[in-house]
Structure formats: C-alpha cells, structure tokens
Amino acid sequence: MKSQLTNRYNTSAARWRAVISRDPAADNAFVLAVTSTGIFCRPICPARRPRRDRVVFYDTPADARRAGYRACLRCKPEDEAYGRRHADSIAGACATIRETETMPTLETLAKYAGISVYHFHRLFRRTVGVTPRQFRAQIMIEKAKQSIRGGDSVTAAIYDAGFSSNGRFYEAAAHRLGMKPQKVGLGGVHESIRFIVRRCDLGLVLVAATAKGICEVWLGDDAGALARRLRAAYPQAKIASRDPIMSDLVKKVVGLVETPETPVKLPLDLCGTAFEMRVWDALRRIPVGKTRTYGEIAAAIGHPGASRAVGKACALNHVAVVVPCHRAIGADKSLRGYRWGLDRKRKLLEREKQAG
Fold first, then answer.
1. Which parts of the chain register pLDDT below 70?
2. Among 94, 215, 271, 325, the one annotated catalytic
3. Does pTM top 0.70 for this prediction?
4. Domain boundary among 222, 255, 288
5. Torsion of CA 287, 288, 290, 295, to 10 degrees
6. Domain with 47 in it: what CATH number?
C-alpha cells in the first residue's frame, strides 16, 4: 500500500478537530452527521460548520444511511471516488497479506490504510467477506493445493505454504471447507462419489453424493458431458454410477424442480469458504415463491455492501435448486447471470411464484 497516512482519527475529539480545520487527509476516514438537519457530510464539506452538540460521527456513508441520515448534495459523500479510495485500501491490504511471508498485524494494515483498527477490520470483512486472518489462511490453503497437484507430497506442500504443522493446515481447511480437505479441496483424493443423471422438465439433472450427502447438483442437456465434467472435477476420487441409493436422492431433487411447493430435506456435503457457506445458508432460508436482491442477502448475513461477493458465491454454488441461488436477483429486480442459463432461472421462478 502506498498510503502513508497515520491513524489520526480514532476519537470523536480528533475527528472534530479535523472538521474544524477541514483536514483533507480526513476525507476518507469518516463522515459526520448533523442531527438537526438529518444530513451527513464529508469532514471537508464547504457548507457552514454545524454546532458540535449536533454532530455525530460514522465510519462510512453506509453507516450513516442505516442510521437514517441522507447524503449532503453539496459535498456528495457517497461519490464513487470515496468508495474507490476505500476499495483501493482493501485491495492494497489483500496484496500485502498475499505477498508477505508473515501475516501483518491489524495495526500495521490499518495504519497504512489511514483508518482505525476497528474500522479497517469491519471494512475488510464487509468488502472481502472474511477477516484478514481468514483471507491469509485461504491463500495458504490454495498454495498448498497447487503444490500437491503439481506432484509435491502433502507434508512438503503444507510446510512450503507457510503452515507450521499438518494440524494447522487441517484446522484452517476444516474452517474454510464444508468437506474435509482431502476431499474436494484436493481433487477428491480418498473419496468415493456416486452419481446419477435423470431427466426433468428443465433438461437433465446430475446428482452426485459422498457418504455424507449430496455434493453436486448440475443441470444440463448432455448426460455424457455432465458425467465427464464430474470426473474432471474430482480426478482423484472413485466415481461410481448406477447406485440404487441415488435413485431416491435424484427423485427428491427432481421434485424440487417440478413441484417446489413440496418441502424436502436432503443430506448435504458442501464445500466453500466461510462466507460462501453463509450465503448458501441464507439462500436456503428464502421462501418458495420469493426472491431477494444480492444486497438484501449481503445485509442478512451481516455484510452490507458485499453484494458483489454474494453474487460470486451464488455463481460458485455446487448444488442447483437444493441451494436456490436462482432466487437471488439484481438490485433493479432483474434476473442476473445463472450458471445453468437464464431461461432455466426464469422458469424456476415462475413455477415457484405460482406454487408460493
């Protein structure tokens, strides 16, 4: 990160001094709201300075909005440049975490960003979806996975990635993945996966499961292509078809497609980051016949402003219909990208609306 700002705006007194002097360095550090007018501004706003007893401070414009204030039309605190400065700070923090050999402290990262530790931690989690330490663990896990796929032993890859022991790696991976790291995270090594393909009124549906539960539900039009894709996704797993147990599972999944009003409980074995798992859980809580915007889902899981990250988590959903990512829509209520095609998404929503 290039910013060399010091952390000068931790207290209300320091923020008020910045407002009095219209300190330009404070422009990306906080906003002030005026209780008598219901408006929030940048600390450098050229408007007449309000009385101190009528001013409250917020870390971000979004915080002020949630408190019921509206943006100043003169200094435009929600201007894109404001958000871009924060985004640049978080992008710089991600680069620092990724490139340094040891994990930087929160104090160091916040100092370079020019904001308080509390604000930095909250902003990072809201933007990235995980904490800085969890982000670091994900980087290390991915590095270990690449080394293993490149032919290195598991132990060597774990230590080369920066973990101090095998236990540390598996602890981090268990937090990040729904399945154990030996499964999906490493190409399905040591895992047995059963699958079946059946026809539904949206084309074909592939259902794959481990001993724990369903790990993949895909929609498509070519049974052979679906099977080949599954084997490519789990190159080190033992893949088997024509398992009688799978007939019952695929019947229930087809039921979710064709008669969505009928509740079905299915065993799941999902893999994803902690953030993705929270998004998928929120999607499953959306009632049949209802939709939620990406922003509403982000707010529901405690990450307002992370609508793009929610969209990415929807795109990475492994189990179509079971985790109903088709119920996520754009802020303007339009249908956005769907992994299995917008036409299928439209049909699913129309059918669920009638059922609901």
1. 1-8, 24-25, 80-88, 126-129, 143-190, 242, 273, 356
2. 325
3. no
4. 255
5. 60
6. 3.40.10.10
